[in-house]
Write a structure and sequence with these properties.
The chain has about 260 residues and is of the alpha+beta class. It is built from 7 helices and 16 strands. It binds zinc ion (ZN). Zinc ion binds near residues 48, 55, 62, 63 and 66. Pfam families: DUF2797. It comes from Marixanthomonas spongiae.
Length: about 260
Amino acid sequence: MNYEGVLTKMKTENGSPIQYYLVFENDFLNVNQLLDKKVSINFLKYQCLNCRLEKKIYRQGFCYDCFYEIPQAADWIMKPELSTAHLDKEDRDLEYEKGVQLQPHIVYLANSSNVKVGVTRKTQVPTRWIDQGAHEAIEIVEVPNRYLAGITEVALKDHVADKTNWRNMLKNDIKDENLVEWRDRLKKYVPDEAKEYFIANNIETNLEFPVLQYPTKLKSLNLQKTPFFEGVLKGIKAQYLIFEDNTVFNVRGNEGYVVSISVG
Ligand SMILES: [Zn+2]
């Protein structure tokens, strides 16, 4: 079987285990069904996810020009504390910013290699946790807009990590943590503006990734240097494909790359 299209991050469906899908214009592929099969990836060309032109991808699936222009790639995406729609203040496109920022947001603790704090729209739970490869996570604050989530995250960063060690996450070099205890310990650091939104009574969510065999050391596949790769798929975790020879491929990191994928 042969599939072709521009890579975008895999769609997911929570379950035991999580189901992963590659969505192309004319093809829809359940990646779990490729486990234990020989899969090849062939890089064909670039296609910016915004302008769709064949321009080199700069970041997040966008070409350089789009990345510095469109509201989907503004700074407040990665730094929620920079959100200003709640003040009616435009960054790149107020209409768009209101639509995304002025909706319920969650501040969570997730454990993928260590406990970290993060922010996501409420509609993105548990998708966001799956994308990060967290095996456990818990919502700790639910606020009405992105700004409040952002300043809460910034305040908590002084007391808990905000980064994942992706190598440990992929090697499954992890330990279970009691996230309820973490939440209770961090409660006092939630800023005053967000204290009333603290969630005191929920429990952690556990996630199960479809991995048959974890890599022992990692080789990252870079399609610019290695435009053709073939290997037996042994697992899917976060947005990574894990192959038998310890090669890992970050699908999200290659958004905007047009590839053909062959199976079997
Ligand atoms: Zn573009």
